[in-house]
């Protein structure tokens, strides 16, 4: 039981009052109150004004009077506000006990939205021709955080990574290796994925610009890639697998893991497109164009002023969307699964089994990675394509929200950070482009964050061993990257700044982690094992009550984040929880009070904070060190 207990009690009692007044079907809200308006507020009076022909103020006064007659366990009093809101005050002695006792349980914060149904979350999906850059990291962290939140909301989550190993960007590095003389092995000390992106890809695309006739070589290579038996396709498979291995190492270092890798080349060769093409025709979801600029093509009609989308060209070749439609249908389990499965050759650091699709019939066939619902994390530039796929999947499955595109805006680098990382931008934010080589890879940002954190930690803790310092620096660096990628609304562009993101003040991961370390230090100094066998009535200072209340809101925040697919909700909650603890820390001494009962009660509160902030940060993929 959490703060939701008092909300449920108030909601039930208000419904009883309305029933006695013969009022039904009023969808009022009962929510945690803003400061100065009690502990819980309801807008019920406003919704009854028209029906009862009275002002909200008069109605709230009437309801408050009637509420006194209700059996109430957790409410000490109700109070009408002059504005018309109906406010309630908690019996904090009882609510303290409920919240702090429950906060020690492993399932604290769990909500049952998913009912153990299966949901697919697809994220990352980066072309295997280069290292992951800071822009890709937003996709990866959003997807991983959403997966963690949905698991907490009792969904069975399948996490997929779509490997686009047959597109133009892969063709470009194959052209570089096969036709422009690039060595297979990278220079000493350089990762293979960095080499492919920084050198082979960028310099190959430069050659196209210098000599447009080279485009024909590119087209020929792209065609050869689609033939899985060609020497070019076999060579490309070795190259892309090697790049993928490095990309996964970057993801794993950031605490991200997957259930299955799906390869585009296999989707093309599996025959899935033929099945879905016939289904599209049968359902009249595509039309054959007899004249105009799209004569001889199969098209999806555009909505409103949107242009028609060509799905099959006049020469019979399928366009890019033709790869995505069957894959989307496969994720929803709408097509027979043509794949077999084998374990990926490297083990993930958390020991989670990673499978990969294969067309090799000797491999296992027993895996199932489809779901009742699919969330695909792709940046907002793909919004129109995803809108088409979402619409088609809704018609196939007859469930409008079965397929969800979770879009997000891009990541730029602040001018100061770009300068630190070697990019000159004339004082402007750096917009990234892999094709032009204007990007900063994620490994470099992580390394720089780690280096700066090691320096700071050594200054603060000269007694620590190098291994301890490196572990703290790793946890802080990962936390910094992850937090900066999710604390903003998804529809806002992020301007990533190294210096600000490492600050121990303000809305940053290190600020929250440091607050956790502060709580850990208090518990360590106490020399006691915290207990819930305390006098909860002693916790009555405003800063104590505020901290208890914030702890008790955890499951409501999880519910909000899961329902709205919003990782920001949890990041904001972590910050609010840290702010509440620091306010308590500044105003309420915990140790050496000369009052053992009060000291034990406050230690119980400190321990509950520590437990819950760890749980909340874990949903963000962030580890909270005990020392910083």
Automatic annotation (TrEMBL):
PROSITE patterns recorded: AA_TRNA_LIGASE_I
Q: Which organism is it from?
A: Candidatus Nitrosopumilus koreensis AR1
Q: Which Gene3D superfamilies match?
A: Arginyl tRNA synthetase N-terminal domain (3.30.1360.70), HUPs (3.40.50.620), Isoleucyl-tRNA Synthetase, Domain 1 (1.10.730.10)
Q: A GO molecular-function term, please?
A: arginine-tRNA ligase activity
What is the catalytic activity of this protein? tRNA(Arg) + L-arginine + ATP = L-arginyl-tRNA(Arg) + AMP + diphosphate
| The protein, known as | Arginine--tRNA ligase
Q: Which GO terms describe its cellular component?
A: cytoplasm
State whether keyword ATP-binding applies.
yes
**DALR anticodon binding domain ranges (all copies):** 512-628
Subcellular location(s): the record lists:
Cytoplasm
Which family does this protein fall into? Belongs to the class-I aminoacyl-tRNA synthetase family.
Q: What does the record list as GO biological process?
A: arginyl-tRNA aminoacylation
Q: Where is this motif: 'HIGH' region?
A: 126-136
Specify whether DNA-binding is a keyword of the entry.
no
Record-listed E.C. numbers: 6.1.1.19
What are the UniProt keywords, alphabetically?
Aminoacyl-tRNA synthetase, ATP-binding, Cytoplasm, Ligase, Nucleotide-binding, Protein biosynthesis
Residues in Arginyl tRNA synthetase N-terminal domain copies: 8-90
């Amino acid at each position: 039981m959490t703060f939701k207990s008092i909300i449920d009690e108030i909601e039930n009692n208000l419904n009883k009052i309305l029933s006695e007044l013969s009022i039904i079907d009023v969808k009022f809200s009962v929510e945690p109150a803003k400061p100065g308006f009690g502990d819980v507020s309801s807008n019920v009076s406003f919704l009854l004004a028209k029906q009862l022909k009275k002002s909200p103020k008069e109605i709230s006064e009437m309801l408050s009077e009637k509420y006194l007659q209700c059996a109430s366990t957790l409410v000490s009093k109700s109070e009408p506000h002059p504005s018309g809101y109906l406010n309630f005050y908690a019996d904090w002695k009882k609510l303290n006990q409920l919240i702090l006792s429950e906060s020690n349980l492993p399932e604290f914060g769990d909500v049952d939205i998913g009912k153990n149904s299966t949901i697919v979350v697809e994220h990352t999906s980066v072309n295997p021709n280069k290292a992951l850059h800071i822009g890709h990291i937003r996709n990866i962290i959003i997807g991983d955080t959403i997966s963690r939140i949905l698991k907490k909301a009792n969904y069975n989550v399948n996490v997929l990574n779509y490997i686009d190993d047959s597109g133009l960007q892969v063709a470009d590095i194959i052209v570089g290796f096969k036709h422009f003389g690039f060595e297979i092995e990278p220079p000493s000390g350089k990762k293979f994925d960095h080499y492919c992106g920084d050198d082979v890809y960028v310099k190959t695309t430069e050659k196209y610009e210098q000599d447009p006739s080279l485009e024909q070589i590119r087209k020929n290579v792209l065609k050869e890639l689609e033939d899985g038996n060609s020497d070019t396709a076999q060579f490309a498979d070795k190259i892309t697998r090697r790049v993928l291995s490095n990309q996964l190492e970057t993801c794993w270092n950031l605490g991200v893991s997957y259930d299955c890798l799906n390869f585009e080349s296999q989707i093309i060769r599996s025959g899935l497109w033929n099945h879905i093409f016939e289904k599209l025709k049968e359902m009249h979801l595509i039309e054959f164009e007899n004249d105009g600029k799209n004569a001889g093509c199969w098209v999806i009609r555009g909505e409103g002023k949107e242009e028609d989308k060509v799905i099959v060209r006049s020469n019979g070749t399928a366009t890019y969307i033709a790869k995505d439609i069957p894959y989307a249908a496969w994720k929803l389990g709408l097509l027979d699964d043509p794949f077999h499965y084998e374990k990926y050759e490297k083990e993930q650091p958390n020991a989670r089994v990673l499978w990969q699709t294969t067309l090799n019939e000797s491999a296992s066939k027993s895996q199932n990675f489809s779901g009742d619902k699919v969330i695909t994390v792709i940046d907002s530039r793909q919004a129109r394509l995803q809108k088409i796929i979402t619409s088609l999947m809704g018609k196939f499955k007859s469930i409008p929200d079965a397929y969800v595109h979770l879009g997000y805006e891009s990541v730029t680098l602040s001018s100061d950070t770009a300068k630190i990382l070697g990019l000159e931008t004339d004082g402007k934010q750096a917009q990234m482009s892999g094709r032009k080589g204007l990007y900063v890879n994620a490994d470099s940002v992580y390394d720089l964050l780690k280096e700066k954190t090691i320096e700071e930690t050594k200054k603060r803790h000269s007694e620590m061993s190098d291994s301890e310092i490196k572990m703290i620096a790793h946890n802080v660096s990962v936390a910094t990257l992850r937090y900066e990628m999710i604390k903003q609304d998804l529809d806002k562009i992020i301007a990533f700044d190294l210096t600000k993101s490492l600050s121990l003040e303000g809305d940053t991961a290190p600020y929250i982690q440091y607050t956790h370390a502060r709580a850990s230090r208090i518990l360590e100094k106490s020399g006691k094992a915290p207990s819930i066998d305390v006098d909860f009535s002693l916790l009555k200072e405003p800063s104590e009550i505020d901290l208890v209340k914030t702890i008790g809101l955890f499951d409501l925040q999880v519910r909000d984040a899961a329902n709205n697919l919003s990782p920001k909700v949890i990041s904001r909650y972590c910050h609010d929880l840290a702010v509440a603890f620091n306010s308590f820390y500044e105003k309420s001494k915990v140790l050496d009070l000369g009052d053992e009962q009060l000291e034990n009660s406050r230690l119980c509160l400190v321990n509950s904070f520590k437990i819950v902030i760890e749980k909340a940060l874990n949903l963000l993929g962030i580890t909270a060190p005990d020392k910083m």
